[in-house]
C-alpha cells in the first residue's frame, strides 16, 4: 500500500520512496464567479446611476474614499462575517458597507439590487472563448461561488450559461468556500472525482482551499478592469488544450 512519505524541512526523510502517480486527466473544471469570469461595473458608474443625478469628480472622490474607509469600520467588518451563508446575511453585509457613507444611505438598497442585476456585471474578454474551448474538449464545467443570490440569470444574460452543468451557490448550502463540502458537491453533480477536477478562482484562501478537498486549484492574479482580458488561457494549458482561446 502506498503511504505518504514523512518529510523534513528539505524533503522526504527516507530514501527510495516511490514517486507519486501522475495526476489523473482532468474531466471537469469549476469556476468562481466575481473576479474570475465576471467583474461588476465600476463603482463610480453605479453610484451615479443609483443617485440619479450628475456627480462631479470631487464629490465622487469623496464618496469612493468613504467606501474605502468603510471597509475598516467595526460594524462593517462584523457584518462581513459569514456573509455568504445566506441571502439575508449577504444583503445585510453589503448594505451595511454602502450605508457607511452618509450620502449613500438613501440608496444602499438600490446599490445592492444593482449587484444582483445581470446587466451590472461584465464578462472578461476571454471568458466566453475559454468556456467554449473547455466544453469543446469534452470537459464538464461548474460554478462554485460565495454569493448571496442565484447566478444563472447573469450567466444566461451574457450568453454563457449553456456551458455549465452545475451551480453551487454558498448561500444555498449554508456555508462558504473553502469548506470542502462545496467543492465535493460540485464534483458529485458533474460526476467527476476530486482528483479529476480543477478549481479556478481569484481568492487564495477561498478558491485555493479546493486543494483541501483533493482538487487541483489555480488562483488567478489580481484582475484587470471590467471587460479586460483575464488570462484564462492559462486554464486551457492546465487542461492540456493547446489552442489559444480566440480574443
TrEMBL record:
Keywords: Hydrolase. InterPro entries: HAD-like_sf, HAD-SF_hydro_IA, HAD_sf. Gene3D superfamilies: HAD superfamily/HAD-like. It holds the Pfam family Hydrolase. SUPFAM superfamilies: HAD-like. The keyword Nucleus does not apply. The keyword Hydrolase applies. One of its GO terms (molecular function) is hydrolase activity. PANTHER family: HALOACID DEHALOGENASE-LIKE HYDROLASE (HAD) SUPERFAMILY PROTEIN (PTHR46649:SF4), PTHR46649. This is Putative hydrolase of the HAD superfamily. It comes from Streptomyces qinglanensis.
